[in-house]
Design goal:
The complex is a heterodimer of chains A (107) and B (119). By secondary structure, chain A is mainly beta. In chain A, 0% of the residues lie in helices and 50% in strands. Chain A contains no helices and 11 strands. Chain A has strands at 4-7, 10-13, 19-25, 33-38, 45-49, 53-54, 62-67, 70-75, 85-90, 97-98, 102-106. In chain A, strands 2, 4, 5, 6, 9, 10 and 11 form a 7-stranded mixed β-sheet that branches. A 4-stranded antiparallel β-sheet of chain A has the order 1-3-8-7, with no helix packed on it. In chain A, a hairpin with a 3-residue loop joins strand 5 and strand 6. Chain A is globular. Helices cover 0% and strands 51% of the residues of chain B. The radius of gyration of chain B is 13 Å and the shape is globular. Chain B is an all-beta fold and 119 residues long. In chain B, the strands form 2 sheets. In chain B, strands 2, 4, 5, 6, 9, 10 and 11 form a 7-stranded mixed β-sheet that branches. The chains are: A mainly beta (107), B mainly beta (119).
Chain lengths: 107, 119
């Protein structure tokens, strides 16, 4: 299975900050990576697929980049509704695997 | 708007069985592959199983192979997960999710159903 490592696991930030979350995978996966946002008690929601393609309806302050083994999710101007946990997921091959998650909390 | 509603969760003893259902509506279910994803209490996400749009292709995470079976009934717009020989480590919220494209990312998710394996 392909391992997926996210960092940091916890990120303290303030509204208006620019935040970056990193995702590394154990082997090259081209751009076969997605990002999800999960709020407490809710199901995850798709933000980005194909490493950098924004899902419809997702605000443009979210962006994704990277290919191969290193990927990044950036929130350019953190809003109050963005405090949540974020997961990356590789779908290059089965079994699909997720990173451990990054919780973005209020500083 | 796509609607996915899971049911069938509950408390089950180790070694027991449970069948989860996911009722789909507001989209053409038979056109879409589907996934099950789970989340243990306070933990991260774990993909569990995939089934193709017509039920012909199935994949599982190693930890459930031989114990869980994914299936679907397109005439009833329903996805299933038959869970046999359950273990305490299977305790989790189980989500069904619509496949985004050809077994890749996950589109809309259901609200989840909690399975607790305990004696």
């Amino acid at each position: 299975a392909i391992w997926v490592t996210q960092s940091p696991s916890l990120l303290s930030a303030s509204t208006g900050d620019r935040v970056t979350i990193s995702c590394r995978v154990s082997q090259g996966i081209s751009s076969y990576l997605a990002w999800y946002q999960q709020k407490p008690g809710k199901a995850p929601e798709l933000l980005i697929y194909a490493a950098s393609t924004l899902q419809g309806g997702v605000p443009s302050r979210f962006s994704g980049s990277g290919s191969g083994t290193v990927f990044t999710l950036t929130i350019s101007y953190l809003q109050s509704e963005d405090f949540a946990t974020y997961y990356c997921q590789q779908y290059f091959s089965f079994p699909h695997t997720f990173g451990g998650g990054t919780k973005v909390e209020i500083k | 708007q796509v609607q996915l509603v899971e049911s069938g969760g509950g408390v089950v003893q180790p070694g027991g069985s449970l069948r989860l259902s996911c009722a789909a509506s507001r989209f053409n279910f038979s056109d879409y592959a589907m996934h099950w994803v789970r989340q243990a209490p306070g933990k991260g996400l774990e993909w569990v199983a995939f089934i193709g749009y017509n039920g012909n292709n199935k994949y599982y995470v190693d930890s459930v192979k031989g114990r869980f079976t994914i299936s679907r009934d397109n005439s009833k717009n329903t996805l299933y997960l038959q869970m046999n020989s359950v273990r305490p480590e299977d305790t989790a919220v189980y989500y069904c999710a619509q496949d985004g494209y050809s077994g890749r990312w996950y589109g809309p998710w259901g609200q989840g159903t909690l399975v607790t394996v305990s004696s």
